[in-house]
TrEMBL record:
This is FAD-dependent oxidoreductase. Gene3D superfamilies: FAD/NAD(P)-binding domain. Pfam families: Amino_oxidase (PF01593). PANTHER family: AMINE OXIDASE, AMINE OXIDASE [FLAVIN-CONTAINING] B. Belongs to the flavin monoamine oxidase family. InterPro entries: Amino_oxidase (IPR002937), FAD/NAD-bd_sf (IPR036188), Flavin_MAO (IPR050703). Transmembrane segments: none annotated. Residues 12-88, 103-360 form the Amine oxidase domain.
Amino acid sequence: MNNPVIIIGAGLSGLHAASVLSAKGIEYVVLEARGRIGGRVLSEPIADRPELGKFDLGPTWFWPEHEPVIAALVKELGLRTFEQHTNGALLFEQSADQPAQRHMLTEGTVAKSMRFVGGVQSLIDAIADGLPDGVIQLNRRVTAIHMDEEGMVSLDVEHAGEGKESLQARAVILALPPRIVARGIIFTPPLPNDLMISLTAKPTWMAGQAKAIAVYEQPFWRDVGLSGQVTSWAGPLQEIHDASPGAGSGALFGFFGLTAIDRKQLREERIRELVIAQLAKLFGSPAERPVALLFKDWSRDMDTSVLEDAKPLTDFPVYGQPEDAGIWKSKLFFAGTETSSHGGHLEGALCSAERAVHNMLKRIC
């Protein structure tokens, strides 16, 4: 019997690669360092108020008019979606000392984006539910990958609190951020220098960011003609959107203007205070009393971010396939949104998974 294909990473890309292999009858195993599936997809409920819905602390949107792969998958899986709320005025905050300016955008200015009922986690769960029992192994961190002179591949795997093991692989799909691969896994023999440079040059999407979500009983800002969308130069949140889960409760989420380094110097409690103060200034006294304030700093997530990711991005990164893997090219295959021309989107994660499986099957079949 052949050794299985091993997929490292149970985020969207790794799980989609697994589903494609399942459909083709290829034996595989998915190893995930975290204690959960989803990777950078993270949809959380309020601990004592689950009826309020789930809220995305990772990716939120997809654009079906421009992203055919995810649009087709959503239809195939029968997932429920709804359009991002954009009706109403946008607020523009230039200074902490002045009131925000109110603007009405002309129709068609904002591209139609869609969200998932139950958060993006519903997509992750639907894919995982279609996989055979036992193929996903959590709390499994790959620390090294070896290839001997005969081309046999083995992986050193650490089990959280349970010791180590060595696994044999027919081939490996690395469904991880490229910088995590370069900084977190030892390769014997080493990867080609050009490939290592290519991997470390790809900033991990979202790795330097943090998200805050203020959850309310209802989206009260809509009653006064506001969309919930804000552009701010005063901060701490630089970009704010309506994050309400479609019906019932309300929520506002924001991306930070504060850099990862700035955030590290502040206590989380202080960051939360600054967020609530900004929301109250923008949306009035009802914003001072959220049911809950969710916060996720991806720069502090060791399975997402490396030291280089703390440097703020000044432009959209150039993403795409890594350089040639040299002697590893028939054994290692790269997936993940950073390895796709659609990098940074859920579409990129899916496209990269399909490309990785396609290229792998050309080599091993």
